[in-house]
């Protein structure tokens, strides 16, 4: 506990409750998830870069989405694993806490901007296929990706700055496995109602600013697909969007529960579970979502595996 007029210069991450045995089990589970996330998303990035069949806007965006998934899980999971492996609360400096929170929010914001762009890409591919190559040319795709990254990082400067301008005098124990903003606001002795309201509005802007184009795009996509006379044609058209749509449902669903709420300082257990969905489960699932339902990616993986087998035999 801190004095009434002092502010924290370091924080203690409470991590997960439970026995050492439970912590070791959680460590094994999350280490497996993290390893598969790194390998799966790295494989996607590599095949998108080297396979000519995947040289299209959809896979260009997918490669950047995979890079973002690697970043978001790497920002959180290694610290969490360290806390599970060693007993006691984990110490994190103020600078490290600021950096972790900023990178986590910036990468997440970039990901939502990119998911919105991917929805528009699918709309153009399905609803305006004859002009697809003209509209979604390489220059447009590069600018979309650059703007997504720049927007994500610039947008989160003020929220993180405002959070750490508060005085943390109640305690310096964060009831989570990372520097969670909601739990940090709980530690402040300032009145946080105004900043919580501004953070709520900013979260609404980010999530719904990218969700609305996604909903509009998929409304037109579904309408166009239903007009295709053959069942095989409808199935083929829908298969090009199914992976992205699944990713959107999981990603937006988790973050709507976590960030779009007027009261940021809610139950720690709730925040902990939803944070696990965002930082561990979703990055783990995305490689499977984008490969198991995509024939081109499966073919590229199969050919790549054959090529490596031939190299080892020689």
From TrEMBL:
Keywords: Cell membrane, G-protein coupled receptor, Membrane, Olfaction, Receptor, Sensory transduction, Transducer, Transmembrane, Transmembrane helix
Any one GO molecular function term: olfactory receptor activity
Cellular localisation: Cell membrane
Leader peptide range in chain numbering: none
Gene Ontology cellular-component annotations: plasma membrane
Residue ranges occupied by any G-protein coupled receptors family 1 profile domain in the UniProt entry: 40-290
Entry's transmembrane regions: 25-50, 59-81, 101-120, 141-161, 193-216, 237-260, 272-292
One Pfam family matching this protein: 7tm_4
Membrane topology, as annotated: Multi-pass membrane protein
InterPro entries found in the cross-reference section: GPCR_Rhodpsn (IPR000276), GPCR_Rhodpsn_7TM (IPR017452), Olfact_rcpt (IPR000725), Olfact_rcpt_6C-like (IPR047132)
Role played: Putative odorant or sperm cell receptor.
Protein family according to the UniProt entry: Belongs to the G-protein coupled receptor 1 family.
Protein name per the record: Olfactory receptor
Organism: Panthera tigris altaica
Gene: OR9A4
